[in-house]
Design brief:
This protein is of the alpha/beta class. 33% of the residues lie in helices and 14% in strands. The strands form 3 sheets. Strands 10-9-8-11-12-13-14 form a 7-stranded mixed sheet, with helices on both faces. Strands 3-2-1-7-4 form a 5-stranded parallel sheet, with helices on one face. The chain starts with a strand and ends in a 9-residue tail after the last helix.
């Protein structure tokens, strides 16, 4: 049997990646599939077969394999300075066709796989099956926001909202809206009866944090319907602008309505990267990636740029940097700088909300 374990603290997107990747690896190796920690899965809107339950008392009999990691030390956040920024691509040992060598797990034995598990190499050959595995239950399915002239924007707030490295810039969303409007105009002219559609694309923000989304995109319609309807709204959109959250991936990947998907280039380090991805696992074939320069890149262009960055980084010795220790003066200085930035941003938001009615939440 091959499987994975759902862990306390994982978000839905992380749980789905672990589930899908482990199940695909089991399928590729002709093994049955199982999961531990099924009580933590929490996705009532999905009609998911979690495989054979693996009780806690039986986990010790399973071989454990931890996906290979790769990190670099950068000064974008305290975490990246002290623990490193996760930049790993696919673990070759988990990809289809992996040959026996040191470090490759024995797929013929009972095996539990742990890790990020977000690379398309693990599951890309099984997209049709994944759509079936992640079917939305009829009671939760909805086409309410599936419209020819509507683009759905996913804004991830919560703990991201106070993190300079993670919370996407307003410019990213505005550039994405501009580019999606241009694409809509092309589609509109090609659709039968398309000229009867409005000239302007409408935008709807779906978020886990309405206050952060209003602060980021004043004047936009903002909703948090709950995780189930948020998921379905993303899945059934015609046009989709994603954040750098794993929550939005599988709604986009399993969608049968979406025409274009724009995602942030460099993923979790869109705001600051000089060419690295956090992580390289998040380059997907169906997405277009928007850089800070306002231009879209294909996955192939992103991979080429990343390969060029790695060559430069190796020459500079970036991969040899050692992490800083907690309490190090550099760490404390960075922590103070980031705290001042957060306070300043909150103060500016409160001031804007006072004088600009667009920044106020609309009354229901």
């Amino acid at each position: 049997m091959i499987g994975t374990e759902f862990l306390k603290g994982q978000g839905l997107g992380n749980r789905l990646f672990c589930y899908v990747s482990a199940r695909c690896i089991a399928l590729d190796h002709g093994q049955t599939f199982g999961t531990a920690g099924q009580q933590l899965f929490h996705a009532e809107h999905l009609d998911v077969d979690l495989g054979t339950p693996i009780p806690e008392e039986e986990r010790s009999a399973f071989q454990r394999y931890d996906e290979a990691e790769e990190r670099i030390i950068v000064r974008d956040s305290v975490h990246d300075l002290t623990h490193g920024c996760y930049i790993a691509g696919a673990d070759p040992a988990l990809c289809p066709g992996a040959r026996e060598r040191d470090g490759v797990p024995d797929f013929s034995r009972d095996l539990l796989i742990y890790g990020n598990l977000q690379d398309e190499s693990y599951f890309g050959a099984h997209r049709k099956e994944i759509r079936q595995w992640l079917r939305v239950r009829p009671a939760y399915e909805s086409g309410e926001y599936t419209a020819e002239d509507l683009c759905v924007i996913n804004v991830r707030g919560g703990e991201y909202a106070d993190d300079e490295a993670l919370f996407l810039r307003r410019r990213y969303y505005l550039d994405a809206c501009r580019l999606m409007q241009g694409y809509y105009e092309e589609i509109r002219s090609s659709l039968p009866g398309g000229t009867e559609l409005p000239e302007r694309l409408r935008f709807l923000v779906v978020t886990d944090d309405e206050e952060a989304a209003h602060r980021l995109l004043p004047g936009f319609a903002v909703h948090h319907f709950g995780p189930e309807k948020d998921y379905v709204t993303l899945k059934n959109a015609r046009y989709l602008i994603l954040s750098n959250s794993s929550f939005g991936f599988f709604p986009a990947y399993t969608s049968e309505t979406v025409r274009r998907i724009i995602a942030p280039k460099y993923w979790a380090r869109h705001n600051s990267s000089d060419g690295f991805w956090a992580s390289a696992q998040n380059i997907y074939q169906e997405f277009l990636y928007l850089g800070r320069d306002g231009r879209l890149c294909t996955p192939e262009q992103c991979r080429k740029e990343l390969a060029d960055w790695r060559r430069r980084a190796e020459a500079k010795g970036i991969f040899d940097r050692a992490p800083a220790a907690e309490g190090d003066p550099e760490v404390e200085k960075l922590r103070r700088q980031l705290a001042r930035k957060r306070l300043l941003h909150r103060a500016l938001w409160k001031a804007e909300r006072t004088v600009d009615p667009r920044c106020k939440k609309p009354k229901n």
